[in-house]
Amino acid sequence: MRAKRQEGDSSTPAGLFPIGRTMYGNSPNPGVAFRYVRLRCGDWWVEDSKSPAYNTFQRVGCGRRPPFKVTTPDMSTSPRAYAHLAVVEYNMHPVVPGRGSGIFLHVQIGKATSGCISLRRPALLRVLRWLDPASRPEISIGVGS
Questions:
Q1: pLDDT at 84
Q2: Looking at the whole model, is its pTM more than 0.85?
Q3: In the predicted model, what is the mean pLDDT of residues 6-24?
Q4: Considering only CA atoms, which of 76, 77, 60, 80 is closest in space to residue 68?
Q5: pLDDT > 90: what percent of the chain?
Q6: How far apart are CA 7 and CA 144, in angstroms?
Q7: In a domain, 78, yes or no
Q8: Where are the alpha helices (DSSP H) in the chain?
């Protein structure tokens, strides 16, 4: 964990962060109260710190070349890890280029993440269904109570 995370360092940011207002997944909506976007081929989370779309979700379209540099496949190619995910709003208000992007709460697949938080699928589903957008949920990472 790091308080001053940088793009590509694989650390998890420490702090208190809002949960994004939209959840995503390669699988159908599991019954969350948030807006839910089903991932498909050509859906990206922009990791290119030089792009004006840095640290945002972008639907480019299957087979189309993204207008930003990519170093990982599109989100649809991770059907297990990204079966369902919530966005941890790290480096989003405001977005600082190079500070880090794409921090998610997603399904654990038995290996380290690149800075995300992962839970076993049943636990993640309980959490995602429990979260209420009206209460403006936050996640505390590495911060004492």
A1: 98
A2: yes
A3: 94
A4: 60
A5: 88
A6: 25
A7: yes
A8: 121-130
Question: Which residue is listed with tokens 């189309």?
Answer: 64
Helix (H/G/I), strand (E/B), else coil: 138: strand
Cis omega (within 30 of 0) for bond into 97: no
Owning domain of residue 104:
16-134
Question: Computed from CA positions of residues 40, 107, 104, 21, in that sequence, does the dihedral angle turn out positive or negative?
Answer: positive
Residues 50, 115: Cα–Cα separation, whole Å = 20
Distances (CA, A) of 81 to 67, 68, 86, 110, 114: 25, 23, 12, 10, 12
Q: What are phi and psi of 13, to 5 degrees?
A: -70, 140
Asked if residue 145 has pLDDT above 60, the reply is no
Cα–Cα distance, 140 to 39 (Å, whole number): 26
In this structure, which amino acid lies at residue 112?
A: A
User: What pLDDT band is residue 112 in, cutting at 50, 70 and 90?
Assistant: confident
Beta bridge partners of 24: 37, 85
Q: What is the distance between the alpha carbons of residues 61 and 2, in angstroms, rounded to a whole number?
A: 34
Confirm whether 140 is domain-assigned: no
CA 66, CA 54: separation in Å to the nearest integer? 12
Output the average pLDDT for the chain.
95
The more confident residue out of 30 and 144 is: 30
Q: For the chain, how many structural domains are there in total? A: 1
